[in-house]
Amino acid sequence: MKVKILLADDHQIVREGLNSILSKRPDMQVVGEAEDGRTAVRLARELAPHVVIIDIGMPELNGIEATRQIVAEVPGVKVIALSMHSDKRFVSGMLKAGASGFLLKYCASEELIRAIQTVRANRVYLSPEITGIVVEDYKQKLEEDEASAYKILSPREREVLQLLAEGKTTRQIAEALHVTVKTIEVHRKQMMDKLGLGSFADLIKFAIREGLTSV
User: Fold this and answer.
1) CATH fit for domain 149-209, picks 1.10.10.10, 3.40.605.10, 3.10.50.40, 1.25.40.390
2) Is this prediction's pTM over 0.85?
C-alpha cells in the first residue's frame, strides 16, 4: 500500500519541489496540497493521509495549531514539520503539538524520504541540526515563569490572536470561526487580561514575538 502524503506550504515552489521528489517513489503518493493551515486541517480530515508535511509559518492557521488539530482529528496520522528556522520555540511547539518529525527546508531529498519512513515506523525523526536544540532545550528548560502563549492562552484564543495579528477584522474572524462578533471581542479582552497587556498593539507584538504569525 502506498503512503498517502498531504503537502502543506504557502509557497507553491516548495510544494512543487516536494511533489517532484515524492512522485519518483513508487511506494508514496501525494494525495493533496494546501497553501494555508486551515485548508491543511480540512484536507487532512477529508483525505485521511498517512503523513502530513507542513510548514510552520502558514497563513490563516500556523503550522503548530494546524498540527494540533490534525493529530487530534485524524487517527494514526503522522506530521512532519518543515521549516527554514531551527528556533527552539518552534521545534518545541511542533513536538508538543504532536509532530513526529522536524526537517529543515534545505534538507536533501534522501533525508525527506528517510523522515517519512521513520515516522511511518512510529519513530521520531529530527534533522541532525534539530537534535542538538531539542537536547539543549531539555537540559535548560524554559523558565517556569516565562509568559508563553502556549502556557497561558487556550487553543481557540491562540487561533483568534493569529488572525488578529494577520490584520483580520473582528467580523472576518467571527465568520471564519463560525461564532459571533461578541465572542471574538470576549476572547480579545480575556487574552489581554491573561497576559496583562494594556493595548491592542501590545497584544499584536506579543503574537509576533511568540511566533503565532510570521507578520
Assistant:
1) 1.10.10.10
2) no
**What gap in Å lies between CA 140 and CA 152, rounded to an integer?**
21
The secondary structure element, H or E, covering residue 80 is strand 78-83
* Nearest residue to 37 via CA among 17, 18, 57: 57
Instruction: Going residue by residue through the chain, which has 215 residues, state the pLDDT in tens, using 9 for 90 and above.
Output: 899 999 999 999 999 999 999 999 999 999 999 999 999 999 999 999 999 999 999 999 999 999 999 999 999 999 999 988 777 788 888 989 999 999 988 777 899 999 999 999 999 999 887 876 666 665 565 455 455 666 788 999 999 999 999 999 999 999 999 999 999 999 999 999 998 898 999 999 888 888 787 65
Residues near 51 by Cβ (< 8 Å), separated by ≥ 6? 3, 4, 5, 6, 77, 78, 79, 80, 116, 119, 120
Helix and strand element counts for the chain (H, E):
11, 6
**Is the CB of residue 34 less than 8 Å from the CB of residue 70?**
no
What number of CA atoms fall less than 13 Å from residue 14's CA on the CB side? 21
**Please, are residues 101 and 80 in contact by the beta-carbon 8 Å criterion?**
yes
Residue 33: name the closest of 66, 6, 5 by CA: 6
Q: Does domain 3-140 correspond to CATH entry 3.40.50.2300?
A: yes
